[in-house]
């Protein structure tokens, strides 16, 4: 798969979107290897301790509510 992606000028790995209300999971370093983007969608009021743990990794965290509002405003 990696060769197929590189032959098409794509990054070695596809980006990942994770949807979680609890954020109760680790993000292994392998998920962010080779510049892969990891985007975590969560509720408007997630557990601050879990947010802190997630944000220590090179991921982008977005609230589902804010994302939905942005999409509605765009269309």
What's a quick, concise take on this entry?
This protein has 75 residues and is an alpha/beta fold. It is built from 3 helices and 3 strands, in the order αββαβα.
Notable traits:
75 residues; alpha/beta; 3-stranded parallel β-sheet; 3 helices
**Shape, please?**
flat
Distance between the amino and carboxyl termini: 34 Å
Q: How many DSSP H or I helices? A: 3
- The portion of residues assigned to helices is 25-40%
Strand content: 15-25%
In N-to-C order, the SSE pattern is HEEHEH
Mean pLDDT: 86
Structural class: alpha/beta
Main sheet summary: 3 strands, parallel
Low-pLDDT stretches are: none
Instruction: Please tell me how large the radius of gyration is.
Output: 15 Å
Count of DSSP strands = 3
């Amino acid at each position: 798969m990696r060769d197929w992606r590189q032959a098409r000028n794509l990054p070695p790995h596809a980006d990942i979107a994770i949807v979680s209300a609890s954020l109760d999971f680790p993000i292994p370093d392998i998920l962010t290897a080779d510049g892969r983007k990891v985007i975590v969608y969560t509720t408007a009021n997630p557990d601050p301790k879990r947010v802190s743990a997630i944000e220590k990794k090179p991921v982008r965290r977005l609230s589902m509510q804010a994302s939905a509002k942005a999409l509605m405003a765009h269309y």
